[in-house]
Amino acid sequence: MQLASDSFRDRSAMPAIHSPQLRWSGVPSGVSSLALLCMDADAPPGGADIFHWSVVDIPPSMTCLNEAASLPLRQGQNDFGQVGYHAPLPPLQQTRHYIFRLYALDVARLALPAQFTGADVLKAIYGHIVDEAQLIGTYTRT
Q1: Nearest to 139 by CA among 26, 47, 42
Q2: Which InterPro entries would you find in this protein's record (predicted)?
Q3: pTM (2 decimals)?
């Protein structure tokens, strides 16, 4: 499975204001749904993951998410207290890496509460991952 974007290339600068366009291919046959997580890869050591976005129950027939899309999909609460995507927010003059990870799952709907977080998604997908792909973007706050 491959994950790419028209908004940025792997390991390069990504847009700061809106959610980037993401597209994928090579989803294995028999997959029941997809889940997407965006995490700050440079969270302090020993600390919890910092989630910027979680989207679950994506139909396997879907092949992209467009920039600033108003998604009719289940989105979780990010670690900044809002539902949906939260743009990069590193400390001033620091570059951070943001991992977008797409999971192909063997369940059509994840067992999650109505209000869920990225951490909840990680627990719910355990044992259901068929394949995964990732794309890493960077952002420097000036």
Answers
A1: 42
A2: PEBP, PEBP-like_sf, YbhB_YbcL/LppC-like
A3: 0.93
